[in-house]
Design a protein that fits this description.
By secondary structure, this protein is an alpha+beta fold. The protein has ten helices and 21 strands. It is globular.
Length: 429
């Protein structure tokens, strides 16, 4: 499946110094394929001579470069001035567009994941949705670049996407207003007045620093240590490699986090944990799903291999390759797949993904139907014995309503909280 980003680069990326021909291996044994170069020159000349409309030489050569890169794998690409600028903005946390990562499947555009607090997420776009039309134009037969250009536009303008979604009997038409997207990659909240919850929507350069700030906010609100934390990486399509390594390091005290292997020596790297565990060993549950990709899988894989966290949810996307951004000039670059990454135990995630320790099916929990019939309990029976235990249950209907509400609004998170409770009880024993 070919995948590309719309107004945000979420590929696992490294940015290198500008390329120079002097960097090429002059001792390369294989000679250039002269026959194929002659064929290329003949085709170039035939297009210039016989194509129905005049074609600019620069345009032809740029298209040839694009084809050379996109033919390698779904993630290598040529970045013109606009694409290169967009990628740099995306990794720093501000960019324009809809806020989705997309790929292709059976000729349609597939949503890998919507980004939190973006026009696409607010409009109800979900991971796994298939786009069949952009405004009134069918996407069948479009190239990826053509469909991306159709969805781009000035902030404030609208685009209507026709969506095919599982379990929906007919296509959905969803109107989205384009916007300049400023994302906050890390957010927090407190659940049941004691458990910490951290949501990372994407990995940026400052994500680990933001994570520490949010952890400290939770500590301040709890007025003490955090007894247990849920780290939510669902629908997180990835980001920069250093962000994933630093977040993993935040919960590990030692050992390998991830390593990469490729053809060149430069592509072979190891990243090890050095910092202290910011939770001081408190139980950690990580939520993932099919929209968790790339950098998210690095974090989940490292914490799983070190047995530092319980991974819950559904099998992740399976993007286990590293793309290096190589600036060619000041304005253009190429994104080239240069390595595969491996978890500490040596697992390659490419096309496999991370399998959760505890799998959770995607369920919607319906609320209870209110009736006028009151349920009979022991306390309602005439002559029942009074409870003389001073340690009697002090939970209120409000507490029960909160628990039921979480189960109804986010079943997976509710299960993660239940697991944290079990881990706390186990640790106490």
């Amino acid at each position: 499946m070919r995948r590309q980003l719309l107004a945000v680069s979420m590929a696992l990326t490294l940015i290198t110094t500008p390329f120079s021909p002097l960097m090429a291996d002059t001792t390369e044994k294989e000679a250039l394929p002269l026959e194929q170069l002659r064929v290329f020159a003949q085709i170039f000349g035939r297009i210039k001579k016989d194509y129905v409309e005049p074609v600019d030489d620069t345009e032809l050569l740029e298209n040839a470069i694009k084809g050379m890169l996109t033919g390698l794998d779904p993630h290598s690409a040529y970045l013109n001035a606009e694409d290169f600028k967009e990628l740099q903005e995306g990794t720093s946390g501000e960019f324009g567009g809809l806020g989705i990562e997309i790929g292709t499947e059976d000729g349609f555009i597939k949503i890998i994941a919507p980004i939190d607090d973006t026009p696409a997420e607010r409009a109800g776009i979900k991971a796994g949705d298939l786009i069949t039309r952009i405004d009134d134009t069918p996407v069948k037969g479009m190239t990826m670049d053509e469909s991306v250009q159709k969805m781009r536009g000035k902030p404030g303008t609208k685009v209507t996407l026709t969506i095919v979604r599982k379990k929906e009997s007919k296509p959905l038409e969803i109107e989205i207003t384009r916007d300049i997207i400023r994302t906050q990659s890390v957010k927090h909240k407190i659940i049941e007045d004691k458990f910490g919850y951290i949501r990372i929507s994407q990995f940026q350069s400052a994500t680990a620093e933001d994570l520490l700030k949010q952890i400290n906010k939770i500590r301040d609100k709890l007025k003490g240590e955090i007894p247990g934390l849920v780290l939510d990486l669902r629908n997180n399509p990835g980001g920069v490699l250093n962000g994933a390594v630093s977040v993993s390091d935040s919960f590990l005290t030692e050992g390998l986090i991830v390593y990469t292997k490729g053809v060149s020596e430069d592509s072979r790297m190891e990243f090890k944990a050095e910092a202290e565990d910011i939770l001081n060993g408190a139980p950690l549950v990580v939520l993932v799903n099919e929209g968790s990709a790339s950098a998210s899988e690095i974090v989940a894989g490292a914490l799983q291999d070190h047995k530092r966290a319980v991974i819950m949810g559904r099998q992740t996307f399976g993007k286990g390759s590293v793309q290096t951004i190589v600036p060619i000039t000041d304005t253009v670059a190429i994104k080239l797949t240069t390595a595969r990454y491996y978890t500490p135990s040596g697992r390659s995630i490419q096309a496999e993904g991370i399998k959760p320790d505890i799998e959770i099916r995607q369920l919607d929990i319906a609320g209870e139907v209110e009736t006028d019939v009151k349920r009979i309990k022991e306390a309602d029976l005439a002559g029942h014995l009074e409870n003389v235990d001073q340690q009697a249950d002090t939970s209120t209907k409000e507490d029960e309503d909160k628990q039921r509400s979480l189960a109804e609004t986010d079943y997976e998170l509710n299960e993660a909280i239940n697991l944290l409770k079990g881990l706390m009880l186990y640790n106490r024993k």
